[in-house]
Amino acid sequence: MKMLTQRYVEDVAVGTALGPIEFGPVTTRHLVQWAAAANDFYEIHYDKAYALAQGLPDVVVHGPLKLALMGRLLMGWVGPQGWIRRLTCRYLGFDVPGTVLRCTGTVTAVRPESGEVDVELELTNSDGARTAAGTATVRLPRRGQGGRAPVPGDDSDAP
User: Fold this and answer.
1) Which residues of 49-79 are buried (b: 16+ CB within 10 A; e: fewer)?
2) Region Disordered: start and end of each range (predicted)?
3) pLDDT tens sequence across 109-132
4) Which of 94, 89, 73 is closest to 138 using CA atoms?
5) What is the DSSP letter of 10?
6) pLDDT value at residue 145
7) Contact (Cβ atoms closer than 8 angstroms) between residue 103 and residue 20
8) Rg for the chain (alpha carbons), in Å?
9) Alpha helix positions (H), the chain
10) Against a cut of 0.70, is the pTM above it?
């Protein structure tokens, strides 16, 4: 098992790159497993004939699976003492079985006093198409702070 490296707010600057992480190639089995885990049995995710009848190119990847990949990238990046404070995702296109999903991010703002870092996220597929985009705010600990970054919503350490 790979140990996560702790990242500190002092070590981050605007423009810092996150990732990439990759998932795939996506299979129909992955989609059925996700459907079961998420209790999302909409036929466009596992029934090819139904998906084609709806005008789709094939069965399609669940949008929340893309969001989960963004969360996975962030959790691996912040380390065991960091937090995801906010995460949003816009679905921009369909992904189908056989594709590899690639998630990356870029730091857009750093607030050392609170430990908060803003990140823009992007998910692309094997064809290079951008099929999801997101934003996040994470909270990182400061060096010498002793333990976890302050819990989201706990601003008792704010100046």
Assistant:
1) eebeeeeeebbbbbbebbbbbbbebbeebbb
2) 130-159
3) 999 999 999 999 999 999 999 999
4) 73
5) G
6) 76
7) yes
8) 18
9) 28-38, 48-53, 63-78
10) yes
User: What is the sign of the dihedral through the CA atoms of 43, 129, 139 and 86?
Assistant: negative
Q: Which pLDDT band, with edges at 50, 70 and 90, does 4 fall under?
A: confident
CA 154 to chain centre: 23
Second CATH level (architecture) for the domain 9-27+61-139: Roll (3.10)
CA distances for 118 relative to 24, 37, 45, 112, 136, angstroms: 27, 29, 32, 11, 6
Task: Please work out, in degrees rounded to the nearest 5, the angle formed at the alpha carbon of residue 85 by the alpha carbons of 79 and 91.
Answer: 100
* Mean pLDDT, residues 86-109 taken together: 98
- Interhelix angle 63-78/28-38, rounded to 10 degrees, is 80
Which residue in this structure is represented by tokens 């010498």?
Answer: 144
Evaluate if residue 155 carries a pLDDT over 70.
Answer: no
